[in-house]
Amino acid sequence: MSSITLDLFADHEPEQQPKREQIAEQSWVLRGFVLPWLERLLPELDAVLAAAPFRQMVTPGGFTMSAALSSCGTWGWTTDRSGYHYSRQDPASGKPWPPMPEVFLHLAQAAALEAGFAGFVPDSCLINRYPPGAKMSLHQDKDETSMAAPIVSVSLGLPAVFLFGGFERGDKCQRVSLFHGDVVVWGGVDRLRYHGVLPIKDGQHPRLGEQRINFTFRAAR
Ligand code: MD6
Ligand code: FE
Question: Which of 35, 54, 82, 216 has its CA 20 to 30 A from that of 65?
Answer without folding.
Answer: 35
